[in-house]
């Protein structure tokens, strides 16, 4: 068993064993137990009572965090020439089409989000074997295949995130930085939880929110009492 560091012991001492905290208390406590020298990300892990192997129980959605994620999101827009200036004006980091398709085919994937247009999906589609495993493949359901590329770039830069339940029934998402005020972490967490609640599949039976945990980079997880979350 790995030995705990001094900081890990201090962090664990601030969390009561077997206690579930209110969402508001958890988002305050996560700041108190984080001792990294860098600005840690704050993450939320939600275990759902669904079977993601069944298509009618897949949970995938989009949330626009009111205070963003605190991360610099690198955006590539694959579009026709008439849309390039719109994408650049919205703040896209890379804009083009054929030259970037060639770069990706050569192994380049140094971006966080790729946005494209329906009219060029025939070209982009052949990149699926490269982009799919990296969760970079544009998808209409996540709003990354659209004719309004400028709007899509603006939303992503402002804090729009795409999430999907994994094969174990858990949604993992980043909801800010530990440098955020606690109330902003709370409001971001509440937003994504309420969005997940609205996406409950009709085929899902029993308890939908099995568990919720909040943590920061290298910190222990804090258990959230689901009954304290408004609107779920």
From TrEMBL:
**InterPro entries, per this entry?**
Ribosom_uL1_bac-type, Ribosomal_uL1, Ribosomal_uL1-like, Ribosomal_uL1/biogenesis, Ribosomal_uL1_3-a/b-sand, Ribosomal_uL1_CS
Its domain of life reads Bacteria
GO MF terms here are:
rRNA binding; structural constituent of ribosome; tRNA binding
Gene3D superfamilies recorded for this chain? 3.30.190.20, 3.40.50.790
Q: Which CDD domains match?
A: Ribosomal_L1
Q: Pull one GO CC term from this UniProt entry.
A: large ribosomal subunit
Q: Transcription regulation: is it a keyword of this entry?
A: no
Write out the entry's keywords from A to Z: Repressor, Ribonucleoprotein, Ribosomal protein, RNA-binding, rRNA-binding, Translation regulation, tRNA-binding
A GO BP entry is:
translation
Which NCBIfam families does the record associate with it? rplA_bact
PANTHER family for the chain: 54S RIBOSOMAL PROTEIN L1, MITOCHONDRIAL (PTHR36427), LARGE RIBOSOMAL SUBUNIT PROTEIN UL1M (PTHR36427:SF3)
Function of this protein?
A: Protein L1 is also a translational repressor protein, it controls the translation of the L11 operon by binding to its mRNA. Binds directly to 23S rRNA. The L1 stalk is quite mobile in the ribosome, and is involved in E site tRNA release.
Q: What's the protein here called? A: Large ribosomal subunit protein uL1
Please spell out the taxonomic lineage of the organism that makes this protein.
Answer: Bacteria, Pseudomonadati, Bacteroidota, Sphingobacteriia, Sphingobacteriales
């Amino acid at each position: 068993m790995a030995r705990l560091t001094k900081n890990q012991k201090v962090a664990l001492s601030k969390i009561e064993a077997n206690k579930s905290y209110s969402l508001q208390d958890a988002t305050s406590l996560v700041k108190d137990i984080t001792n990294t020298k860098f600005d840690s990300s704050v993450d939320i892990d939600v275990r759902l009572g669904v079977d993601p192997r069944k298509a009618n129980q897949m949970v995938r959605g989009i949330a626009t965090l009111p205070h963003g994620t605190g991360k610099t999101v690198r955006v590539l827009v694959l579009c026709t020439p008439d849309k390039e200036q719109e994408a650049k004006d919205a703040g896209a980091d890379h804009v083009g089409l054929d030259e970037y398709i060639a770069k990706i085919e050569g192994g380049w994937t140094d971006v966080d989000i790729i946005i494209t247009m329906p009219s060029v999906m025939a070209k982009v589609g052949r990149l699926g074997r490269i982009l799919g495993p990296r969760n970079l493949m544009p998808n209409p359901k996540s709003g990354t295949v659209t004719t309004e590329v400028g709007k899509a770039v603006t939303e992503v830069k402002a804090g729009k995130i795409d999430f999907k339940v994994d094969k174990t029934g858990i949604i993992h998402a980043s909801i800010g930085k530990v440098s955020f005020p606690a109330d902003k972490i709370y409001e971001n967490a509440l937003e994504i939880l309420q969005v997940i609640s609205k996406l409950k599949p009709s085929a899902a039976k029993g308890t939908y929110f099995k568990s919720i945990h909040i943590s920061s980079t290298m910190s222990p997880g804090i258990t959230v009492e689901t009954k304290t979350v408004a609107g779920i």
